[in-house]
Design goal:
two-stranded antiparallel ribbon, 9-stranded mixed beta sheet, alpha/beta, globular, about 375 residues, Rossmann fold, about 20% strand
């Protein structure tokens, strides 16, 4: 009884201490109470316009080096050694399930679409979203084979929820593009042996950092390899390879465009903003979890998101966001757009950059698909 009373008194004392008006805390809603000061201290010294480098081409080379270094990128020339595992004829194109060495560590399954007919085609690296939906990855963008009934049911529901019932890859293939989609590390067939677990994102990110790598860096490296693989196919024009993605896939699309010139044009749907607008206690980015796959440790000390995307200039780039998208505050999106337009304009190619705000939430609807296709057709359909 005496022990119980002691514990009760201790509990009351701790409660009073924690709620005392004199008590101060350093964290609130998982953010330092001085987060605004930390944000202000981000000066982005290597951004175009802030850097001491005044020649754009020299800056672009330097900034790409900074990006790759912060990604902890390691070049990989492992032979792809791809093999076709299964095929399915579709309306105007053929779907292939293939296997290839995406890096020197693993051999993965991927989905590849090829339009019917002879000739050399433009191609697209298609980059799937995050969505905290890990059971499928590449199947979010390319319709699974009819025999894969379990994945097909999940993918159909996801296409209805996020893509206006459009499979982006199939849509592009029907319109004359070779399309490749892989699972990013942690999704689909590259997921956990023990099964899907949301909190494992943090564990994976931490474990990779302990081994001198970053999750976002490994995803970007695999995306770069995807573009390189497409360039090896005899029916793909290596000078007409683009990238398309929604949500995290959009982040992957402009990261890929900044990291390599193998990609000649890209469309990024619903992922662009400035850090100032994202780093607030109310924003989803501040919750951790799903943010880990898109965090590059140390990069914010050099470049903000639109600064990284600007490394892609003078390539044709399309950015789409929704004015009702709760993940990306409109003011932050417009600030990012304004910065990028200034870069493309200074390089004399502002017509290569298209930025659009739809009156929509976080989605990739049919009207956006039409805009993406028209944009790609303008820049990739004409043989170089």
């Amino acid at each position: 009884m005496k022990h119980f009373l002691s514990l009760l008194l201790a509990s009351v004392a701790i409660s009073l201490w924690a709620t005392s008006p004199e008590k101060t805390f350093e964290l609130q809603r998982d953010m330092p109470v001085y987060y605004e000061i930390l944000r202000e201290e981000l000066q982005y010294p290597d951004a175009w316009g802030n850097s001491e480098i005044t020649d754009y081409d020299d800056w672009r080379e330097y900034a790409r080096g900074v990006l790759l270094q912060q990604l902890q990128y390691q070049a990989d020339d492992t032979p792809f050694d791809y093999q076709v595992v299964d095929t399915e004829q579709r309306d105007g194109y053929t779907a292939y399930r293939i296997e290839l060495n995406i890096n020197r560590y693993v051999r993965i399954s991927a989905l590849l679409l090829r339009p019917d007919g002879d000739g050399v085609f433009p191609a697209v690296v298609l980059l799937h979203d995050h969505g905290a939906k890990f059971e499928i990855g590449k199947e979010k963008n390319i319709r699974p084979f009819a025999s894969d009934t379990a994945a097909l049911a999940i993918a159909d529901a996801w296409a209805e929820k996020c893509y206006d019932n459009v499979y982006t890859g199939d849509y592009l293939a029907q319109n004359g593009y070779v399309v490749l989609a892989i699972d990013a590390l942690f999704w689909g067939e590259r997921g956990r042996k023990e099964g899907v677990r949301y909190d494992s994102q943090q564990a994976l990110a931490a474990n990779l950092l302990q081994m001198g790598r970053s999750w976002c860096g490994m995803i970007t490296a695999d995306d770069m390899r995807s573009a390189d693989f497409l360039a090896t196919l005899p029916y793909v024009d290596a000078e007409r390879i683009g990238a398309v993605g929604f949500s995290m896939g959009a982040h992957r699309a402009w990261m890929l465009s900044a990291a390599t010139d193998r990609v000649k044009a890209a469309a990024a749907v619903c992922w662009m903003c400035v850090t100032d607008a994202l780093m607030t206690p109310a924003n989803n980015q501040a919750k951790g979890g799903s943010a880990y796959a898109m965090i590059v440790p140390g990069l914010r000390n050099h470049l903000d998101y639109p600064h990284v995307a600007a490394i892609a200039c003078p390539k044709p780039m399309l950015f789409i966001n929704g004015s009702k998208d709760k993940l990306f505050p409109v003011d932050g999106v417009e600030e990012a757009y304004a910065y990028m337009h200034n870069v493309w304009d200074e390089c004399g190619v502002d017509d290569h950059l298209v930025t659009t705000l739809y009156d929509t939430p976080h989605t990739f609807n049919s009207a956006m698909h039409t805009q993406v296709l028209n944009f790609l057709n303008k820049w990739l359909k004409v043989e170089k």
